[in-house]
Amino acid sequence: MAQKPSIPKGTRDFTPSEVVKRNYIFDVVKRHFQTFGFQPIETPSFENSETLMGKYGDEGDRLIFKILNSGDFLNKVNDELYSLKDSNKITSSISEKALRYDLTVPFARYVVMHQNELDFPFKRYQIQPVWRADRPQKGRFREFYQCDADVVGSDSLLQEVELIQLYDTVFTELKLDGVTIKLNNRKILAGIAEVIGAKDLLIDFTVALDKLDKIGEDGVKKEMLSKGISEFAIEKAAPLFNLKGSNTDQLDALDALLENSKEGKKGVDELRFIMETIVSLGMQSAKLVIDVTLARGLNYYTGAIFEVAAPKGVSMGSIGGGGRYDDLTGIFGLKDVSGVGISFGLDRIYLVLEELNLFPEAIDRSLEVLCLNFGTKEGLAALKLTTVLRKHGIKADIYPSEAKLNKQFKYANNRNVPYVILLGEEELNNSSFVVKNMQNGEQKTYSLSDTQQFIDSL
RNA sequence: GUGGUUGUAGCUCAGCUGGUUAGAGCGCUGGAUUGUGGUUCCAGAGGUCGCCGGUUCGAACCCGGUCUUCCACCCCA
To answer: What SUPFAM superfamilies does this protein map onto (predicted)?
Structure first.
């Protein structure tokens, strides 16, 4: 019985046109990763579970795809554990491997394992798929690509500055105008939590704060209260909810708010340095704004936090993000290696470019010239001509069988071929070929002994 | 993981309170046109109505389950 074919939830097939467009984005991103001095690495699609588990919080652990052990794995579980039917506890006994959830943690593992071969600061880029057992939504898949650039082994803030320039360069090249790079600093958030006396609830505080533009001031306060943050503390943090004005105005306000927090002050200073340096360097097309409510991202960030928002009017979550993490390699035994990195969300950038119609024209043109087939003898001559064109790097093909011209032309039309070559009995007799321009219908005759004339006209 | 939503021809979608043989546009195939596509005209093919079960004399339509789509939450690229 034939079964109806299907693919798992949250995964996709890509058509030729989609692959070409995705490659276009990959190529731009990759090219600029390289011009900024990053080197490529790749890591396995699955890692040992202990490498990944516990690095992304409880929520993250739930979203990691676990790989079942091979063999009779259930038989190896001890009876007591089995009878408890506790999925979380039994997982580690039946699964030792898991699909990678992002590229940053595997990179940290890579740096630790290869520390003696690397020259620090080590700048690496990595473009590979990652998997999350999430519930799919628009722009949210269970298999998707991340394009990451990270620097480890340097705590210079110039790295942050360069990464912002890298974002700006890539989005400018993609013609994606009006992208906003949001910038915040974990130290500021920690400082605020300290100042208002909610140091232990930093994560809950930031997660709630992050929702400000979504659920509003009242919604944020409500959530903070429900997480156990006191009314007094929330009132103290109130200036945050209305932080407006220019970047420098906001920095000054933060300075005042954080005057009793050493860590918070440091965060403001870092932010100020990055902002001022970027201002003096200038940006090509992106906007850089401070957003103290920006808190998303993973728990391992310790300094700068980036998030890239699509141009206004496009409904899409963030199309990139990143930040500085001072001790990611520490969990694998390598201390005092600071890292900072950014990620491009390829799948979402694709959706945005598609929506705004920003892919180059004719990008998915897979064929420039199609030779029609008029029979055995004529077909052979056409194939010779096709071979010459191909040697000149022209995407050329010959229709494989002597079908009706109507059908051959229709095929050329559907494949969007700009030039069709007719080489029939008459042309063969006088060593010529006819080129039809499919846009305007004009036909020109060229000599078979001077194909260069046609090639030059392209 | 929680709540909701969607699924009918290759594609986009109609289909009345449950009632004979489930429709349209586009696309596809053939013809008008034996060497000229994208326009036009004519004809034709194509559907286990997501899947499984239930209610009913009778189910695309009602009910349950399941898969899928999209949305909100959680979280995130």
So the answer is: Class II aaRS ABD-related, Class II aaRS and biotin synthetases
- Strand A419-422 with A369-371, pairing: parallel
Residue by residue, DSSP assigns A222-261 as HHHHHTT--HHHHHHTGGGGG--S-HHHHHHHHHHHTTT-
A233 vs A12: CA distance, rounded Å: 47
Query: Which nucleotide lies nearest residue A6, CA to C1'?
Result: B68
Evaluate whether A89 touches A81 at the Cβ level (below 8 Å).
yes
Average pLDDT score, chain A = 90
Give pLDDT, residue A1. Answer: 38
pLDDT tens track for A284-329: 999 999 998 888 666 788 999 999 998 887 777 789 999 999 888 9
**For the domain with range A369-456, which CATH number is right: 3.40.80.10, 3.40.50.720, 3.20.20.70, 3.40.50.800?**
3.40.50.800
Closest amino acid to nucleotide B33 (CA–C1'): A406
Q: State mean pLDDT over A334-361.
A: 90
Report the CATH fold assignment for A10-179+310-364: BirA Bifunctional Protein; domain 2 (3.30.930)
Q: Which bases along strand B come within 7 Å of a protein CB atom? A: 1-3, 28-31, 33-38, 48, 50-51, 67-77
Whole-structure pTM value: 0.89
ipTM score above 0.90: no
What ranges do the domains of chain A cover? 10-179+310-364, 186-288, 369-456
